[in-house]
């Protein structure tokens, strides 16, 4: 505990007088100190000592200039190449009153990362306040560890050097914090250099407010908010720096003045730990710090962003240190141009004025309230802030003419507001009644199409949703010609239903009709127009036109910026769509993941638990699955499903997609039972909502059938595939129909009916080749074709096909990915069947060596193949070890699998045991493999008819 600067009995009087002295300009404090009343003269030496320590701290340059530096003939305290704990210093980034910041990199080999390494000035650790500095530094470490926000510089690590190490290491006891190294410009500089328009500046400020509100939500106040601590990166994203003087909002001092002394000493003896130009009055006076302190600093920053000049300039150093003062300046009065003055007058003047109230309780109650008023201003909604300048003038007038104003104003206000309110309510009631009646008539007309007494109606309620839409959508324009907003809503709803039914032409027609009405009545920045651009981008992606997808995203990006929707569900949707539109570029995996993560994070902020949030999570889960992170994919999909099921109005089509995505992730993780259940739920939803014969129901049922087949349930899977193939017929224009063909063809080959499967695979390949969207599908189906050709004994054709597929996988994917391993293992197995064990061994060994996970099914297959190669060259002990290793890998299997693979491993092991003379054990394994094949394979499969054949 830090000692009080005076005897305890004098502490209350000392504290009050010190507050008064600190509120004065520096040049007036000496005279005021000498003019103390007689009863307080005893305080003079203690006050003088503290004021002497405060002299530097009260200057604006305190936090930008170190209070100590080594003499000219002394070595610098820190230097390039020096070790600070596990970090090596690269170059100095900056310094301030409390410490210095270096760019550093990890030097102990634990991982590779560059950070901003923050180090306190060593002289601060050697004086009487060293305990306070250490306490402040430790507090910053703990605070930063609890903050995680995209607009707050990330905290990585913290520590203190132990003992002086080898030459080049820092001295013992040097604390350090490793923070995210942010490349950027102060927010005011960024805006000035780019001459950003007003709305773009407000959008940046919204990011700042969001970050500060996040910190407040964790009971942390920043206490030094200023432009230098708010950097904007090259991509226009704010990063809030330096929580070094942050204070936990719950002090918990228990009222003990000596306990308060620690906090006071930390705040005063070491300097007013805020830049005075951006400090709140209570902060400079040593009063309690709260969220209102940061609201005030944000008000000053907002003033500077709006006007390109500080609210309190350097030429008036005393004015902003007063604890009471006149009204803050209005931004509109100091704006540089008439147009800017007009833009700032009114709302923005009122918002800044409320944020800059001298009394903390008169400001916005939270940063979120300040940000909300700014968003309301940008959306042309009424503010929650008082227009203080007008209100204050009215209050003064009322005080001068209290009685007549009270009577006259009350009567006038009651009349005006009452009449206006009644008139408005009556108008709204009439409008709502008209709308309700119109909607009722429309719905009656819609459902009359299902009445069997109406010509064309179907009996027994058999009319489908599509039929109802077809008969009713054409009536929307005429029936609601005088209510464009309701017409827009109905057209959009009908279009959405057509889209979910897979009726693309009808969807496009209604979408264009509703957008035309929107443009006519609301202009190009209406949310429906912006959302329509994002939907069009997604449809372009669905057609395989990624260039058009990205072009439409750029158009939507500009519209969102102009509309001021940077913190909006539409911007979250934009980020998600951007991630999707990058899926055709294998080298953009990091950019895809970042975009999808930003979409999910922003959705969680602006529409938590809403439909947009669900969609963002679903796409993020898909990316996790694509990049092989199945555990993350499963968890994210389940989170999305829980949200979707909790929505007031469940979207069955969305749930169908989510269950399908979950099924894929579970299948890739190897949990075939759970995967089949998830796919089955997706298929049931699709068939229940759209009918089994509709294209949207084909894909989930095909995946359900395939997963059942992988699990060995051929009897359950076979009729599902047969029904699907009958439903798709000769359709090749629908992507889902081609996926059905591929899944059915690949499974037919796997169960020993390659002659029936190959034509389906070739049809799917031809369809995939017509669009660039399906580049991965082309590689995958080519591998399946090679497998089918190999099973038919067409080895040379199979070899050429698999080599071509292998080249495509190598060009597009890292070598350690499972699809690449699967293709290489199949190529190696074919070479074994062709009697080329040396070539086979090279490929199979690469599978084992390069696989990112050593317990994949294809690693076990490769080990079995290596055993076959060793057996072919007479290396029996090696073959025995490898065949046993393959079975051990299968026992520890993770990820994708087909139960038929295990029978192959048994056949390989049986061949090795037979070569070693253990015929009984070999026959037992062959019998086990045959029994499995009879359950999982076709009756005429080679694995059933020729049980001695080793090949899969």
UniProtKB/TrEMBL annotation:
What keywords are annotated for this sequence in UniProt?
ATP-binding, Kinase, Nucleotide-binding, Transferase
Would you say which domain of life the source belongs to? Bacteria
In this chain, composition skew of type Basic and acidic residues spans: 317-328
* Residues that bind ATP: 118
Q: InterPro entries attached here? A: Kinase-like_dom_sf (IPR011009), Prot_kinase_dom (IPR000719), Protein_kinase_ATP_BS (IPR017441), Ser/Thr_kinase_AS (IPR008271), TPR-like_helical_dom_sf (IPR011990), TPR_rpt (IPR019734)
- Region described as Disordered: 313-334
In this chain the Protein kinase domain maps to 87-383
The entry lists its GO molecular-function terms as: kinase activity
The name on file for this protein is Serine/threonine-protein kinase
> Organism, per UniProt?
Aquincola tertiaricarbonis
- Top-down, what is the taxonomic lineage of the species of origin? Bacteria, Pseudomonadati, Pseudomonadota, Betaproteobacteria, Burkholderiales
């Amino acid at each position: 505990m830090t000692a009080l600067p005076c005897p305890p009995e004098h502490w209350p009087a000392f504290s009050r007088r010190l507050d008064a002295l600190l509120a004065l300009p520096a040049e007036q404090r000496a005279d005021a100190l000498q003019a103390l009343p007689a009863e307080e003269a005893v305080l003079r030496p203690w006050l003088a000592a503290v004021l002497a320590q405060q002299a530097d701290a009260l200057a604006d340059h305190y936090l930008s200039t170190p209070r100590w530096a080594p003499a000219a003939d002394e070595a610098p305290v820190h230097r390039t190449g020096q070790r600070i704990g596990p970090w090596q210093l690269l170059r100095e980034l900056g310094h301030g009153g409390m410490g210095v910041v270096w760019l550093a990199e990890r030097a102990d080999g634990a991982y590779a990362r560059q950070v901003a390494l923050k180090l306190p000035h060593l002289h601060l650790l050697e004086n009487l306040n060293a305990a306070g500095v250490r306490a402040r530094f430790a507090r910053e470490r703990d605070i930063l560890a609890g903050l995680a926000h995209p607009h707050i510089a990330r905290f990585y690590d913290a520590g203190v050097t132990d003992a002086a190490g080898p030459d080049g290491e820092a001295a013992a006891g040097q604390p350090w914090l490793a923070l995210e190294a942010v490349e950027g410009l102060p927010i005011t500089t960024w805006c000035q250099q780019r001459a950003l328009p007003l709305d773009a500046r407000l959008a940046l400020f919204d990011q700042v407010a969001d970050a500060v509100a996040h910190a407040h939500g964790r009971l942390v106040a920043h206490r030094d908010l200023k432009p230098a601590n708010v950097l904007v990166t090259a991509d226009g994203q704010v990063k809030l720096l330096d929580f070094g003087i942050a204070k936990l909002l719950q002090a918990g001092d228990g009222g003990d003045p000596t306990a308060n002394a620690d906090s006071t000493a930390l705040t005063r003896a070491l300097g007013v730990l805020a830049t005075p130009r951006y400090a709140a009055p209570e902060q400079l006076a040593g009063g309690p710090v709260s969220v209102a302190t940061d609201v005030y600093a944000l008000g000053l920053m907002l003033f500077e962003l709006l006007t390109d000049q500080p609210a309190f300039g350097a030429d008036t150093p005393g004015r902003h240190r007063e604890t009471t003062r006149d009204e803050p300046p209005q931004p509109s009065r100091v704006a540089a141009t008439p147009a800017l003055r007009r833009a700032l007058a009114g709302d923005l003047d009122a918002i800044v004025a409320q944020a800059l109230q001298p009394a903390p309780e008169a400001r916005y109650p939270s940063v979120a309230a300040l940000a909300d008023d700014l968003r309301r201003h940008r959306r042309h909604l009424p503010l929650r802030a008082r227009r203080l300048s007008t209100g204050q003038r009215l209050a003064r007038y009322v005080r001068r003419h209290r009685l007549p104003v009270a009577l006259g104003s009350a009567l006038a206000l009651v009349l005006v507001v009452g009449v206006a309110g009644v008139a408005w309510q009556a108008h709204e009631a009439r409008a709502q009644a008209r709308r309700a009646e119109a909607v009722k008539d429309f719905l009656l007309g819609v459902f009359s199409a299902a009445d069997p007494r109406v010509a064309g109606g179907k009996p027994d309620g058999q009319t489908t949703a599509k039929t109802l839409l077809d008969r009713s959508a054409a009536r929307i324009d005429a029936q609601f010609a005088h209510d464009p907003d309701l017409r827009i809503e109905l057209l959009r709803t009908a279009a959405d239903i057509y889209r979910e039914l897979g009726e693309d032409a009808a969807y496009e027609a209604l979408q264009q009709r509703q957008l035309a009405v929107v443009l006519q009545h609301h202009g190009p920045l209406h949310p429906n127009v912006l959302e329509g651009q994002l939907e069009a981008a997604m449809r372009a992606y669905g057609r395989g036109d990624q260039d058009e997808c990205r072009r439409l995203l750029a158009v939507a990006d500009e519209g969102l910026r102009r509309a001021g929707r940077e913190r909006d569900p539409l911007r979250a949707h934009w980020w998600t769509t951007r991630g999707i539109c990058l899926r055709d570029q294998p080298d953009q995996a990091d950019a895809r993941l970042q975009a999808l993560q930003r979409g999910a994070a922003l959705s969680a902020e602006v529409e938590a638990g809403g439909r947009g949030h669900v969609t963002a999570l679903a796409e993020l889960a898909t990316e996790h699955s694509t990049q092989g992170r199945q555990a993350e994919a499963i968890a994210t999909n389940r989170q999305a499903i829980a949200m979707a099921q909790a929505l007031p109005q469940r979207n069955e089509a969305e749930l169908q997609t989510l269950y399908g995505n979950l099924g894929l992730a579970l299948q890739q993780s190897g949990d075939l039972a759970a995967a089949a259940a998830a796919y089955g739920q997706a298929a049931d939803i699709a068939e229940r909502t759209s009918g089994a014969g509709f294209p949207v129901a084909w894909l989930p049922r095909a995946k359900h059938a395939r997963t059942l087949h992988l699990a060995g349930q051929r009897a359950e899977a076979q009729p599902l595939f047969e029904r699907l193939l009958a439903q798709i017929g000769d359709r090749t224009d629908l992507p889902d129909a081609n996926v059905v063909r591929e899944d059915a063809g690949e499974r037919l080959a796997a169960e020993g009916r390659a002659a029936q499967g190959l034509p389906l695979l070739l049809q799917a390949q031809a369809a995939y080749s017509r669009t660039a969207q399906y580049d991965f599908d082309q590689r995958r189906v080519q591998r399946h074709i090679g497998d089918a050709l190999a099973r038919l004994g067409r080895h040379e054709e199979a070899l050429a096909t698999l080599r071509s597929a292998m080249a495509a996988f190598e060009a597009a994917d890292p070598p350690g990915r499972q699809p690449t391993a699967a293709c290489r293992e199949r190529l190696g197995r074919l070479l074994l069947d062709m009697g080329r064990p040396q070539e086979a061994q090279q490929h199979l060994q690469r599978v084992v060596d390069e696989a990112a996970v050593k317990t994949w099914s294809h690693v076990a297959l490769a080990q079995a193949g290596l055993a076959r190669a060793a057996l072919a060259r007479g290396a029996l002990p090696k073959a025995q070890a490898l065949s046993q290793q393959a079975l051990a890998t299968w026992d520890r299997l993770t990820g994708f699998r087909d139960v038929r693979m295990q029978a192959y491993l048994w056949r390989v092991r049986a061949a090795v045991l037979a070569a070693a003379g253990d015929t009984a054990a070999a026959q037992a394994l062959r019998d086990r493999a045959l029994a499995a094949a009879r359950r999982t394979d076709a009756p005429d499969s080679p694995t059933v008819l020729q049980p001695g054949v080793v090949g899969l």
